[in-house]
Amino acid sequence: MTFPKGFLWGGATAANQLEGAYDVDGKGLSVADAMPGGKIRWGVLSSEDFDWSIDASKYVYPNHKGIDHYHRFKEDIALFAKMGFKCYRFSIAWTRIFPQGDELEPNEAGLAFYDNLIDECLKYGIEPVITISHYEMPLHLAKAYGGWKNRKLVGFYENFAKAVLTHFHQKVTYWMTFNEINSAFAMPALSQGMVGATGATDKQNVFQAWHHQFLASSLAVKIGHDLNPDLKIGCMIIYATTYSFDANPINQLATLQYNQAFNYFCADVQVRGEYPAYTDRLLKENGVQPLEMDEGDLALLKAYPVDYIGFSYYMSGVQNVTAEDSETVEGNILGGVKNPFLEASDWGWQIDPTGLRLALNDLYGRYQVPLFIVENGLGAYDTVEPDGSINDDYRIDYLAKHITAMGAAIEDGVDLIGYTPWGCIDLVSASTGEMSKRYGFIHVDLDDQIEGTGERRPKKSFKWYQKVIASNGEDLTND
């Protein structure tokens, strides 16, 4: 395998999952700060009774402390540099810049923190890759405005994007507008700030919110390109390669329609700059009336599509609508039917490196824009041995096989610009609100209640990934 010269090897995190310091230096509350930790998370967020109230007597809120990256970022960036990172994907916490979300002027302390973080990356030659909004919109916008179903959020996001792009564009080339924007198909709380009590179960609201996010994304592209045409501003989606369970045409059709609804819809609009031909059918199937649009909306989408596709790939899925008793498995936001040919992670996510090669070929063939794998990894229980070592050979095996698939896709002709495995340092899981679901090359001594020393300790995979980067992906051996 030969990876391109200048390939962006690195790692990925999100502000709300590692920074902590949730009420420090003027930061406001985000929706992530109101999400309880533990396996009850999804049930709480789906409840019609949940109104975004924070009740520390009832729930644990791991995001409040995270891994204290806010105060320890220099230590963490130094470890990333030791691994040889060429880039580091992180997000800017909206509420550090605009604590309530609807202010006119940014919080200077928030801008200063990210100035320091970016400068620390650049000191080591690490290219920052920034997600503008990653599952942490201001809680005030969710409670007072009802989340992204309200068109007023377009203006608030535009103000936020303008502030950070203007402030940081001379230091940062790579940006993404929203994290896993299509996650709202199953869980609008994360990216759209809507829960059961505020209309999350009504697909009318979800699709209307997407329209507003599409507009906001295009405005960010416009702002960025006006500042510097060479800025690269991408979208970011979940991609889950999806197979038909069998050759039954009904399952084949179900697979096509699933791909259109989940894997393609948001990217079709953001990359192609227009709603796809199947939109009317998709809206009708979901009981959605024609969306509210202002004059000029469609022209804005067409004029300012994104420059590249960032995407997460953890697993594949199976469509089987002809059987009522299919065995199911868990997944990233959406689970599905068990694939008998695949093994699964500790959390039931099906492991499918070949599916990543298929994903890369599918996305590049469909859109013909550069691709960036900005999340991929194995959430697992790690054991600290008596001598302090963490022998995560299972993680090395997972990543090596996926990197092999990436190399094969590049040989297929795919334009792949970088790879940032998720949770390069252990952090709070977005899907479960736990620390015990670990992804990192670096172990952090904290439990699910965020108790512990917080000590950073490289795992076996740390040295392995160091070797992978140094060899530009040629040496994947585990020795």
Automatic annotation (TrEMBL):
Active-site residues, as the UniProt record annotates them: 375 (nucleophile)
Top-level taxon: Bacteria
Transmembrane segments: none
One BP annotation, GO: carbohydrate catabolic process
Gene Ontology molecular function, alphabetical: beta-glucosidase activity
Annotated keywords: Glycosidase, Hydrolase
GO-annotated cellular components: cytosol
InterPro entries hit by this protein: GH, GH_1_N_CS, Glyco_hydro_1, Glyco_hydro_1_AS
Keyword Transcription: no
Signal sequence coordinates: none
Family in the record: Belongs to the glycosyl hydrolase 1 family.
PANTHER family named among the record's database cross-references: 6-PHOSPHO-BETA-GLUCOSIDASE ASCB-RELATED (PTHR10353:SF122), GLYCOSYL HYDROLASE (PTHR10353)
Protein name in the entry: 6-phospho-beta-glucosidase
Species of the source: Pseudolactococcus reticulitermitis
